[in-house]
Amino acid sequence: MDLATLAVFRAVAREESITRAAELLGRVPSNVTTRIQQLEAEVGVALFARETRRMVLTSEGKTYLDYAERILNLAEEARQQINPEDPGGTLRIGSMESTVASRLPALLAAFNRDWPDVTIELSTAPTRQLVDAVQAHRIDCALIAIAADDGWSALDALETIPLFREELVLLVPKGHRPVRAPADVEPMALAAFAPGCTYRMLAEEWLMGGAPARSRLKIQEVGSYHAMFACTAAGACVSVMPKSVADTLSHLGSVEEHELMAVDTHLACRPGFATPAFLEWRKRLLAASNIELSASA
């Protein structure tokens, strides 16, 4: 087992194809096939199930991929740490969907223009999953939402810097009666992301703080803010999202807003993580921050 073999394994796992992985790596398919066969012989289990048109990871292969990702990412981090010249290599950024939509486009475009030697790998997930990914070295840093009274112990193992203060709004269908308290909200369904999303957690806590009937609150899980907004405009659900995101979706229909609370988006990373690419990315995020406190972080 060596880093080159792990890189081949990762490419085949991602592409689910020997041919596409070979094209991506600049190798001939027979070389890639040999590497995979040698790796499986070394670990003593089948890492892929060979189907007609694709290579699918076995359960053992999925476990092995997680370790391979960590090893390759650590090797890249080590290379950048001991050779701190201009930003280069790969920077793996995780983020909530809302931050990608409302805060990152211009920042990422400027960063790519100024530092073309840095390869940005951007992934999105709810806050809880992003924290797990940073801790497991699957990503280098993440933009996450932290509630003011969040006592989540996993955050103690990370360095966090507040960057953006987001105003959360409750969206209700057009013509909904005035909302002064949770008990005023109808219908009894919340469109939200999967568990692990801080905004979903806060929305549930607020809505469940109303009358006992709140126990009948239903959750309709959706995969995007567009779907969340559309469900609300159609009258099927209510939803909670940052106002900065809601403002970009008004073309999807008419809704009414009710201000809920402010929640800060933080940049999270492992203690001591300081590659040149990350330090430049952090500097740009701090310059764009709307929280004065972060300027001294």
TrEMBL record:
Q: Which InterPro entries match?
A: LysR_HTH_N, LysR_subst-bd, WH-like_DNA-bd_sf, WH_DNA-bd_sf
SUPFAM superfamilies (UniProt xref): Periplasmic binding protein-like II, Winged helix' DNA-binding domain
Q: Which key words are in the record?
A: DNA-binding, Transcription, Transcription regulation
Q: Name one GO molecular function term.
A: DNA-binding transcription factor activity
The name under which this protein is listed is HTH-type transcriptional regulator GltR
Under the heading Pfam families, the entry gives: HTH_1, LysR_substrate
Q: Which family does it belong to?
A: Belongs to the LysR transcriptional regulatory family.
Please give the PROSITE patterns that the UniProt record associates with this protein. Answer: HTH_LYSR
Species the sequence originates in: Martelella mediterranea DSM 17316
Question: What range(s) does the HTH lysR-type domain occupy?
Answer: 1-58
Q: Does the keyword Transcription regulation apply?
A: yes
Q: Which residues form a coiled coil?
A: none
